[in-house]
């Protein structure tokens, strides 16, 4: 009889993939700065990566139309954060578990500060992981999407984008040595930076400046005038 996982993201196989993703992302996120970072993740417990120059993480767990973790809200509404509030936003498989993928990405872009980093991870739909997810999942299955789709969205929103990369082992496994980037990896990640608003240069315009004229002549000028008259 097949074994089904009540939460596939709580399985040892996904846990190993998350560890491989974190190891590959760490050097790219190490220079992110800011007072706060936003960690959008699945319902399974997962710690955000340690970033030395970042102040604090806010963790939001995404499960369909429900948001949990540091906040409790509806996943069908806007995130309860101010615009441009975070220096880095990490969508860690959250786009696979949300009820509204495009809306969640739009919200992640909205709360990301100009110059901030956006990172997306997920299970690649092509490979041995996809049928394993289909067999193991019970109830609502994760929505696996192509990384190039998110790349096109971010390019359209004028992000500076790095090429998506595959990471992890080619097939689901619970243990073993860490696996970094691999062309047949079961997971993927992409990293993009939000562009800062372009400064509009001002063209200097010549302006006439009136020179003040003295109300009286200098003493020397008066003397010269008297001598000429004489």
UniProtKB/TrEMBL annotation:
Keyword Chaperone: no
Gene3D superfamilies, per the entry: Vaccinia Virus protein VP39 (3.40.50.150)
Keywords, sorted A to Z: Methyltransferase, Transferase
Domain Methyltransferase type: 71-120
Domain of life, per lineage: Bacteria
SUPFAM superfamilies the UniProt entry points to: S-adenosyl-L-methionine-dependent methyltransferases
One Pfam family matching this protein: Methyltransf_11
InterPro entries attached to this UniProt entry: Methyltransf_11, SAM-dependent_MTases_sf
Stored CDD domains: AdoMet_MTases
Protein name per Swiss-Prot or TrEMBL: SAM-dependent methyltransferase
